[in-house]
């Protein structure tokens, strides 16, 4: 899936994950530490990857006005265009790989299992 995403859109799966996380926020901007927690990435990994994305114009870094150590990451117009271009094909590939081979009962069972796991994870937090 990663190779197909890269070939079709020029985005790595990690780029895609970052852009999805940003587009899932109301103002397409999130504090760097919260983005790292959301993606479950270590700080150094996040910093290095964001530096590459900034260089490519996909995201921008903005200092936090009320916390001099904090920073926000925001999606750029180029990043928004990239995710909009990549999302339909990537969603179709995910559907093909994960769901097209399942019948309705299997999808229902998978949904129930994932729901139970997510509930337990929420309780653990």
Automatic annotation (TrEMBL):
Domain spans labelled HTH marR-type: 1-119
GO molecular function: DNA-binding transcription factor activity
SUPFAM superfamilies: Winged helix' DNA-binding domain (SSF46785)
Pfam families xrefs: MarR_2
GO BP terms, alphabetized: response to stress
TM ranges: none
Name the record gives this protein: MarR family transcriptional regulator
Organism annotation: Nocardioides humilatus
